[in-house]
Amino acid sequence: MAAALVAPLLLFLLAVFVLPIGAFLTRAVQETDVAPVLPRTVAALSGWNGQGLPDDAAFAGLIADLKEARVRDQASGGGAIARAAARLNADWPGFRSLLPLTARRVVAAEGPARETLTGINEDWGTALPWLAIRRAGGPLTDFNLLAVLDLKRDAAGDIAAAAEDAAIFRGILWRTLWIGALATFICLAIGYPLAWLIATAPARAVPWLLAGVLLPFWTSLIVRTAAWMVLLQREGVVNATLAALNITDGPLPLLFNRGAVLLAMVHILLPFMVLPIYASLKALDWRLPRAAVSLGASPMRAFLRISLPLSLPGIGAGSLLVFIQALGFYVTPALLGGANDQMVPYFVAFYASRTVNWGMAAALSCLLLLAVALVVLLYGRLVGFGRVKTA
Amino acid sequence: MTPSRFLLWSTGVLAILFLMAPVLAVLPLSFSAGSFLFYPLPGLSLRWYADFWSSDFWLPALWNSLRVGSVAALLAGSLGTLAAFGLWRAPFPGKTLIMAILLAPMVVPAIIVAVALLLAFGPLGLTNSFTGLVLGHAALGAPFVVVTVLAALQQFDAVQLRAAASCGASPARAFWRVCLPQIMPGVAAGAVFAFATSLDEVAVALFIAGPAQRTLPRQMFSGLNDSISLTIMAAAMVLVLISGLLLLAVTLLKRER
Fold first, then answer.
1. Residue B106 included in any domain
2. Do B196 and A353 touch (CB under 8 A)?
3. Residue A226 maps to which CATH number?
4. Among partner residues B112, B202, B232, which is closest to A331 by beta-carbon distance?
5. Which terminus of chain A, N or C, has fewer Cβ atoms within 10 Å?
6. Domain span at residue B208?
């Protein structure tokens, strides 16, 4: 009976939340770009041991595959060859031009397959492009998951470091965690005294102080981001005011940098820190620190040994809320940050919308979800979920 | 006042100033007679509000936001209330796991939900549709309803349900006539939370809404990406007023509890 009441929402969330996300994440290990374009080649290469060169079936298969794919691309206006080339290029640089070039030239080609291909480009006489095709043949791959860790499979199929210009993702992950940690720490440093003040202020001041936290809390994220943009931009409020007061000679570059992103993130996330800490401080038995002081502890010692430990669940809940949300921030860094301030969510959006590379978008999402899950689990271990309170 | 109290008060007041000032500082710009984004204002006028009102996309965007938010809140509110009642009523196997699934939309980054829904809704024809956006926003808002209604049920005495049953009421009738009226402030507050979540949401709207479903935050996002006009400040003012009303509603509902 009780389960039947939960079922509608559970099924709803399974349908529009859990399953879509699950299906999306599996894209990270699916290999879909190469095998449909080069089915015979992939089949022929599956029997190859990777030593020397593949047999003639692979060469003949590639020619037949490319002829067919070219006809299909021209008929549908699709870019299947280009997509396969882009995927292969990520593994073995050179494919972006090699595959389309070969596809154009084989149309008129006659004679033995092996000589035809090596005649078009001598790279086909080496093992490297064939190995790349074999690795990309699918149906499953660890290519994307390795790529977001700045790793790849080398020619022998062993895991190795990615090429330097492709090895950007560890840096992006650290940057995301670093910005999140910094925002959490600043929120805690500002939020704890504020929560303490609200919890200890005279009763008639409390509603006003709370309103000062809740009003910004309820204001749209996009409005608060817009406010910072208008304040900080070149011809914005801050620069105009500084110039009018003759403090600066020219406009300061306040926008599109790390500082602007952090400032706005702290501004947006601060209430999430203040409210749980306030809730735990309000529930605190204030006779305990007073008793400690009356027993001879200094106020500092009473705080460190009594009040602070008792408010730890609030600190934990606030830090969890702030850190997790900071990891997922997309809109604010996208609008206020420069190229070097973008975090993992930005690149998920980038791969999903600009380059339509679902594999990389999914692999980065896996990374992000893993980070969030680890933080949540760590919190469950340290604090426990029974005590999570939101205002 | 002791020095430490003074320090505490000044820190706290500065923090609140930091929270309030940015938005309060830029909103008056929307009444400017000029078109610059700084002070002093060349004069006062309502021209940017007139622009908001008469443009082809701002007012429809506001309408879309209100419509999507209302339907999503209604959907999340009813499903969430039922689920919370079920969770509260009796323990059953896998309750922890189910709770984790129900609350997951709170912690999963919105951008992942957005891209996943774009992929899943595409073949179903739900992208670029009102229905798709409502479904996505309802999923994001539902956990807030569950949490709020569960909190409201803490105050409800379960004995009343047994009393209703002994007087001959069916379980459904007992819920509808005895329990629901008492937890109604919590249900309403949960629905307001869900509405606010939808009204605040950019990522999902960015990825699965078409031009005809553009919401106000989505429209502001595009505006901020191109060139900031003062109409955006007028739109921000509208959003701030709506948020204020929502906060007022939740505060009153809390008091009623």
1. yes
2. no
3. 1.10.3720.10
4. B202
5. N
6. 42-154+184-256
